[in-house]
Amino acid sequence: MRDLPPPLPSATAAEPIPDAARAEVERLLRTGDLFRYTSEDSPVALLEAEFAAMLGSRFALAVASCSAAIFLSLKALDLPEGGRVLLPAFTFAAVPSAVLHAGLTPVLVECGDDYRLDMDDFAAKLPGAAAVLISHMRGHTSDMDAILALAAAANLPVIEDAAHSLGTTWHGRPIGTLGRAGCFSFQSYKLLNAGEGGILVTDDAELVARAVLMSGAYEHNWKKHPVLAAPFARLQNTLPLYNTRLNNLSAALVRPQLAELPRRVRDGRRNHDRVAARLNAAPWFDVPAPLAPEVRAPDSIQFNLTGMDDAAAARFVTDATQGGVPVQIFGLSGDNARAFWNWRFLGEVPDLPRTAAMLRRACDVRLPARFTEGECDMVAEVLLAAAETARAAAA
Ligand SMILES: *Cc1c(COP(=O)(O)O)cnc(C)c1O
């Protein structure tokens, strides 16, 4: 009998939190000093300074989630009530939700088979918009040169949802620093894991002052942010408080992970490119290539099934998952939070045939940086074998 290969490690388990976090968490637990505004140089304030420096941004504001960072960025832009915000139709349900929560109107823009914004549909929907919110979904970067040029010509601010794009660069510049503000997530499935949390970066002193106050810097707590004081004195008490701050424990968990980012990005890219090469060599997979200015930082792989109907695609998912590689097809798994037709809170489902067709064949497989090259080869083998059986069964 042939020896069975060892099972693959869980793809959803996160990396251990670095030991360096332990002493700081222990200190915080001993002192009970969990609120960011108890002291000037709290772990949250230090994280903001370190994160801003890492990305080369002037300011950072850490908050409870990336969704909260997107919400605050939009609120801080002070857009007209009900203004239209263009965003890719391929995103996570929390993103159009943040637009709604900010009192604005989400307008979904078609995405192509390469998971990126369809620039024709974007240009067609741009007139009359109030702002642009670009979700770099699963770290795939849309054509930011074209988006920024069209938005600038129409005098529209661009916010980047870079929740899952930390480490990606565009013409060598960090994603999240290209627009007016960039938003990142510390939820456990992202590159930096605090369980929950988010951060926004910007060079705009007015925007960050407004976001700081609305995040819950009541009274004179804004003095504990090393930002220009001028906008604060003017804005004090003029904005509502949404109280969506980050707590010190979360910041203490994230800070020692910053040093691990280059390794996580490097290994994640190695793993992705290794599996992508194997899949692209087979006729039934298509892994879209990055755009020329883009260097990706993936912790998962997305690919389209070609020449398979719904039944064959479903069979592929079952076989791969049984083989130890969990696969989801965004548009074929029930109630998927990334399929726009499930966002019934938006009202009538918009007609987006290109995005709908892509979502029905686009597969999602986690490929964490901690997987070895051997484990990545096993992932590729399982996917290739599952596709063979699915195609044979359908033939
Ligand atoms: C995870 C994610 C979010 C939401 O982040 P939270 O911190 O959970 O609010 C938003 N957009 C994208 C693209 C994401 O991947």
UniProtKB/TrEMBL annotation:
The active-site annotation reads 190 (proton acceptor)
Tell me which domain of life the UniProt entry assigns to the organism this sequence originates from. Bacteria
Record Pfam families: DegT_DnrJ_EryC1 (PF01041)
Alphabetical list of SUPFAM superfamilies matching this protein: PLP-dependent transferases
Keyword Ubl conjugation: yes or no? no
* Similarity comment: family membership: Belongs to the DegT/DnrJ/EryC1 family.
Q: What is this protein called?
A: Putative pyridoxal phosphate-dependent enzyme
Q: Which organism is it from?
A: Wenxinia marina DSM 24838
